[in-house]
Request: fold
Amino acid sequence: NDGARWAVWFNTGERNLQVGTTDNEADNLGLALSPNPFVENLEVTFNLTQSGPVRAALFDGLGRSVWQGEWNTVSGRNRFGIGAGQLPSGAYTLRIQGDHWAASRMVVKQ
Reply:
């Protein structure tokens, strides 16, 4: 024996893979989707400090865009509707994007 030692490592096979789900920009904008879950129509509300065009897209669980639109917004509170009754039930992500910001929220279609 030359005095060498081997380190012992033990693992249970468990890992904490927690991922943050908070979208700070969505919180800053007061981005809200209602009702959640929805059946036919989804209402989107958010606040902006400047008016201008906002692009919106709804993505399915595989990341495919299933709806796209562009809204002309005002400074202050904005409210828009999305008719999505034709979509299959499941989880979706709505992303809204301005010139220098983007925000997203998850929503469930019943």
Remarks:
- The chain is about 5% helix and 45% strand.
